[in-house]
């Protein structure tokens, strides 16, 4: 009869986190071999099958014993915690077999059944610390020379891997974790988040969130996995999270803000992402290495801000332009956007300094993103200035406010409305001492259309409150990413103004047809 070795990873410890195949494999085997603690964890599944359980250090003899039983034609379950291929029994079993001249056609069949390894079970309990490139390093120098382990810690630390340390400490081995911490501190900030998970998904489970500097003040033992964050790992509400990419953005409203999911998928937000068209793997790898070397010295964050000379003032002074050039430097960008503002992207780890310098140069600053912006006209170079205070009031009160989607208020100081206020989400036009109000313009697209004229002659002292009511309603009831014109159409009214369907544009016959 052909014997079979079922090398089973049973996951972290609870039956719920074991795969169906792992359970079946235990059930279909004739004999069970494993370290006694593990055998106890799956005792319910074993029933009254013969069990050969040995101590931790006798792994080789356990593998030899398993092979012997298989040679006698038995189905043997060799059980390992986590995944049997990660510091488990799978490799040893093959080594013992190969020494005996085993090939796939031999009388003994081998099936390795995967399980959830500690890096994944402990990662899940901590939040989402793995997420990006990660590695496992075992600190046990029982089978590996310490000099090699040291080298691996150093390389992983330098390359900014998230690291899961297995076998961090035991009764006799207490120094390795101390030395590992010292190596890591040479490459990572002392406040790098560190998670310690002991006995994940077992009865005595313990989860501790700490940092690189303080990690040794907590209990670490044989059953602990230590997860070290990379340079962008952060802690939120007791959870350890590694973002999917590196580039972070500062904005005026949130001093440090990770990219939003929809932004992260854009190529310009992840400039290192593989080009879809012609991947030249070598060139990409070389560029990545150079980029990494540069990043070691450079700030890793980008500060984004929109600047203008003022609400009504549209003229930049040469002094202001010099300040922009200096602050942006070689690495940043100055963009004139389709929305007619100047957007700066500045590499810095000190956004507060940039804000101070820009304010000193008399710039008006506005955040970038899903916020409210006010685009006012130049009030005919200030000649028609009666409405300016209202534009400034709106800017001071609502400029930069976070909303479901960016919202533009167009504000024009006379009936000419030459800055196109009526085409914006909210259009305000000052005429004959009062305001006309347009809502739900669609600025771009084939079906672009002006806003609906919802009121004429709003007295000046009422305009700010009227607009406030509209904005508040959109803020509270707009769906995330829902543009204002869509919201107006869906909601049927906003601020008490009723929506009216825009007439469908006439089909214009193509000349000659
Ligand atoms: N094959 C196992 C690893 C065995 S080495 C796996 O894939 O998970 C033993 C080390 O694994 C322990 O020192 C500890 O660091 C880690 N480990 C295994 N099970 C664990 C659990 N339930 N909770 C925390 N760490 C665990």
Automatic annotation (TrEMBL):
Keyword list, A-Z: 4Fe-4S, Cobalamin biosynthesis, Iron, Iron-sulfur, Metal-binding, Methyltransferase, S-adenosyl-L-methionine, Transferase
Domain Nitrite/sulphite reductase 4Fe-4S residues, every copy: 380-490
EC number: 2.1.1.131
Start and end residues of each Tetrapyrrole methylase domain: 4-214
GO MF entry, a single one: precorrin-3B C17-methyltransferase activity
Keyword Zinc-finger: no
Alphabetical list of Pfam families matching this protein: NIR_SIR (PF01077), TP_methylase (PF00590)
Family annotation (InterPro entries): 4pyrrol_Mease, 4pyrrol_Methylase_sf, 4pyrrole_Mease_sub1, 4pyrrole_Mease_sub2, Cbl_synth_CobJ/CibH_dom, NO2/SO3_Rdtase_4Fe4S_dom, NO2/SO3_Rdtase_4Fe4S_sf, NO2/SO3_Rdtase_FeS/sirohaem_BS
Enzyme class: transferase
Pathway(s): Cofactor biosynthesis; adenosylcobalamin biosynthesis
GO biological process: cobalamin biosynthetic process; methylation
NCBIfam families cross-referenced by the UniProt entry: cobJ_cbiH
PANTHER family: COBALT-FACTOR III C(17)-METHYLTRANSFERASE-RELATED
Name under which the protein is recorded: Precorrin-3B C17-methyltransferase
Species: Anoxybacteroides amylolyticum
Lineage: Bacteria, Bacillati, Bacillota, Bacilli, Bacillales
């Amino acid at each position: 009869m052909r014997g079979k070795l079922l090398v089973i990873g049973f996951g972290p410890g609870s039956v719920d986190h074991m795969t169906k195949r792992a359970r079946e494999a235990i059930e279909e085997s004739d004999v069970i071999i494993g370290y006694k603690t593990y055998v106890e964890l799956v005792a319910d599944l074993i029933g009254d099958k013969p069990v050969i359980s040995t101590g931790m250090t006798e792994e080789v003899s356990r593998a030899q014993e398993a092979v012997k039983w298989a040679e006698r034609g038995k189905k043997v379950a060799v059980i390992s915690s986590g995944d049997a291929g990660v510091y488990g029994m799978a490799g040893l079993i093959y080594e013992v077999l190969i020494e005996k001249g085993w090939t796939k056609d031999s009388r003994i069949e081998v099936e390795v059944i995967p399980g959830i390894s500690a890096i994944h079970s402990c990662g899940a309990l901590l939040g989402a610390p793995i997420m990006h490139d990660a590695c496992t390093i075992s600190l046990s120098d029982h089978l590996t020379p310490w000099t090699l382990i040291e080298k691996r810690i150093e390389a992983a630390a330098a390359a900014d891997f998230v690291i899961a340390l297995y076998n961090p400490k035991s009764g006799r081995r207490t120094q390795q974790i101390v030395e590992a911490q010292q190596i890591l501190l040479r490459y990572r900030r002392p406040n790098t988040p560190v998670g310690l998970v002991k006995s994940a998904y077992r009865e005595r489970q313990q989860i501790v969130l700490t940092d690189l500097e303080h990690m040794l003040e907590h209990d670490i033992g044989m059953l602990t996995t230590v997860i070290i964050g990379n340079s962008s790992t952060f802690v939120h509400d007791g959870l350890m999270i590694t973002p999917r990419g590196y580039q972070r953005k500062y904005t005026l409203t949130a001093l440090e803000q990770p990219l939003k999911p929809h932004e992260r998928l854009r190529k310009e937000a992840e400039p290192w992402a593989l080009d879809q068209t012609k991947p030249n793997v070598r060139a990409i790898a070389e560029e990545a290495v150079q980029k990494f070397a540069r990043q070691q010295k450079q700030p890793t964050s980008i500060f984004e801000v929109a600047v203008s000379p003022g609400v009504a003032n549209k003229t930049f002074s040469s002094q202001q332009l010099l300040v922009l050039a200096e602050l942006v430097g070689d690495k940043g960008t100055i963009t004139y956007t389709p929305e007619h503002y100047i957007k700066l992207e500045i590499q810095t780890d000190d956004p507060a300094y940039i804000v101070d310098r820009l304010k000193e140069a008399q710039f008006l600053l506005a955040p970038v993103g899903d916020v409210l912006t006010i685009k006012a006209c130049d009030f005919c170079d200030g000649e028609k200035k009666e409405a300016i205070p209202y534009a400034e009031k709106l800017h001071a009160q609502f400029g930069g406010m976070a909303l479901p989607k960016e919202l533009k208020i167009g504000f024009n100081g006379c009936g000419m409305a030459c800055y196109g206020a009526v085409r914006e989400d909210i259009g305000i036009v000052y005429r004959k001492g009062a305001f006309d109000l347009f809502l739900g313009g669609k600025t771009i697209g084939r079906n672009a259309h002006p806003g609906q004229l919802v009121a004429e002659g709003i007295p000046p002292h009422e305009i700010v409150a009227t607009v406030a009511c509209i904005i508040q309603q959109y803020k509270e009831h707009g769906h995330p990413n829902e543009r204002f014109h869509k919201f107006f159409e869906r909601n049927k009214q906003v601020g008490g103004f009723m929506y009216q369907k825009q007439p469908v544009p006439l089909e214009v016959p193509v000349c000659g047809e």
